[in-house]
Amino acid sequence: MKKFLCLLFLSPAMIFAGDLKIEDAWIRAVPSSSKSTAAFMTLVNKTDKPVLVTAGACPVAGEVRPMVTTKQADGVMGMAFVENFSVPAKGRRVLEPGGDHIMLMQLKEVPKAGSVVSLVLTTETGGKQGRIHLEVPVR
Amino acid sequence: MARPKHSDARSRRIGLIIIAACAVVAVPALVVLFAVAGKSSSPWFGQYDPDTHPAYNFSLTDQDGRTVRLQDLRGQAVLLAFGFTRCANICPTTLGNLAAVYRKLPPAAQERTKVVFISVDERDSPATLKEYIPFFNERFTGLTGVPADIGTTARAYGAFFRKADAVGSDKSDYMIDHSTYTHLIDPDGNLRVLYRFEQLPETDKIADDVLRVLAAQPPKNQP
User: Tell me: the pLDDT tens digits for B119-133?
Assistant: First the structure.
């Protein structure tokens, strides 16, 4: 049981830091010409207060911001920046392809499939700032 | 001692009767259910168009600088999507899914299938597409053209696009809102099936549609 808990704790797919647990984080591998890419994950809030993901930082990107995908009835889709992703108390929020994502912009280098990229997310819980350090696989 | 034995045999008999009764009721019920389901549901996964509508015969430039007309692709099933290479979320998802559809086709069907991505972004050149398209599949075609031709082509396929906000502080790095339908054009050049963006992860079912479109028009025998 102890060993199992240890493995659970070390598993890169499940990272608990402060108020959010991050599950299944990954960054999309994109063509070498790309100026941006996106990080996807599930944000799990274990607390009884809403947690906001406000920004991020990543060594390969000039700017890291939360972005939502907008969709109209006629199938037209676009992207829009948001101030934050709010994860409801005791709830979860899924960032996935075609939906919400953490946008990595002004790429200094295009992350290669199979590599791992450091990503820091900035959070806010009831006015208190927090940081989550992630090592995110690229695929 | 005899009693439990007797009761065992009896409960076994009752059990058998219940199983038989269930079978008598259930088998015809299932047969009816399958018949109804088979009749009411289309074999096509996407939105199928039973009428014959010729797809617009575009003439655009591919990633190698060659002119490609839809007409040149007669005899092949064409999966056609619109987008732009700076699109960080929607277009890579679409092309990633179409690459998975393509991989699921047997080699003979791959020979008769073309995945075509038309850029609606005037910043995309054949050279940009050359860096972008082969990442998803070496055999995919990326097309670009002068804005008037791209506009005419998009309108003809009911595709919409407009410039949106810049991503971040670099104003030249603007995004483009665009429609996200994928067309399946049959080997005779007719619009056959339409997919919504949300349907694209069902790559097995789309591959089945492609095979069905190819089976409807078998390859012309060489003389």
Answer: 999 999 999 999 999
Which value, in Å, is the radius of gyration of the alpha carbons in chain A?
Answer: 15
Contact at CB, B180 and A75, closer than 8 angstroms: yes
CATH code of the domain occupying A25-137? 2.60.40.1890
ipTM of the complex: 0.76
Pairing of strands A101-107, A61-71: antiparallel
- If asked whether residues B14 and B81 sit together in one domain, one would say no
Would you say residue B223 lies in a domain? no
Contact list, A98 vs chain B (CB under 8 Å): 89-90, 93, 197-198
Where are chain A's structural domains? 25-137
Task: Mark yes or no for CB contact A62/B168 under 8 Å.
Answer: yes
Contact residues, chain A, for B181 at CB < 8 Å: 75
B86 with B147, same domain: the answer is yes
Q: Is A82 on the interface with B (CB under 8 A)?
A: no
Cα–Cα separations (whole angstroms), residue A55 to A130, B19, B61, B175: 11, 62, 40, 20
pLDDT tens digits, A31-41: 988 889 999 99
Strand partners, A17: A20
Residue B14 lies in domain: 1-41
pLDDT at B147 over 80: yes
pTM of the full structure: 0.79
Whether residues B93 and A97 touch (CB distance < 8 A) is answered with yes
